[in-house]
Amino acid sequence: MSKEVQQPFIALGDILNSLTSDASKEIYEPATRLKEYIPRAVHQNGWFDEANVNRAIDGVVQMLADSSVTDWISKYDIPDNEPKRIGVLLAGNLPLVGFHDFLCVLLSGNTFVGKLSSKDDRLLPMVADILLDIEPGLAQRIEFTDGTLDNIDAIIATGSDNTSRHIEYYFGKYPNIIRRNRNAIAVLDGSETEEELVGLGHDIFDYFGLGCRSVSKIYIPESYDLDLVFKGLFPYQDVLTNKKYGNNYDYYKAIYLMGQTELIENGFILLKEDQAIASPVAVLHYEYYKNSDELAKVLLASESKIQCVVAKNNISGLRVVPFGQAQSPAIDDYADGIDMLEFLIKLK
Prior knowledge:
348 residues; Aldehyde Dehydrogenase, Chain A, domain 2; seven-stranded mixed beta sheet; five-stranded parallel beta sheet
């Protein structure tokens, strides 16, 4: 079953590539509807802009590269069983944020039953339409709803720590993967190049810091010069042109100043020394560390709050990615480190 679905997904990646690559390249006709819809998606969700929607599409394209899909699937023994109905609660914080769930459910031979978020209720269905144009036989295994999730065999959901409790209450009787709040963090040691610090800007500002892989905090050695970070972040100053981001910047700056909170800022991001990993939009927490061994213990104690670590060197027990790559997960880089494909394959 997986091989029957694998090739249509690879073809889907090639088609989506025509939307964001060379403008002179001919666009596959069913994909033109998606391209024409992007400005409407931006209008519907103030946190979406065309650059980030295209970035999300590029991420899907990279994920669906022929060799990536083939190598990934070859590691699993996918049985040809009767499809299970997998309910997926789709978040709307990022464009196409539920695509990997969609991919895993279908490649595992199961039926995708997606509950759409009002913040992003068209992008994934439009991508699914392109897939169905490639392989109409998948129509019986793809459903979208904006109502309740009924008649399901398992549930996959992403939410905040608060909403996850409600999800567990309503869907805890089903086999489940329920994801909670996580963020990415970055560890600097002072040896970073200018290029790496510019890459850190992508990790912080892509999708305006709203993703679970967005860097919300940096750990820096004692006596580290934060001007080095500001220099790397300078190319992203246009982030303030997004009204919602700008409102957050103004709001938190006012709140912190009224509370006499010590801040370091450069006009478009606020740096606040804080032990918490999660930070508000337009705020980057930082914390000093004495040595790498002590830091590793601190990070491992907070592992359940960390999606990935941006750093030059490996940290035992944590997923480490290079600077600039936090927002570009590989096809086998599962959220929260839970092998979703294995979970779906083993459903009884």
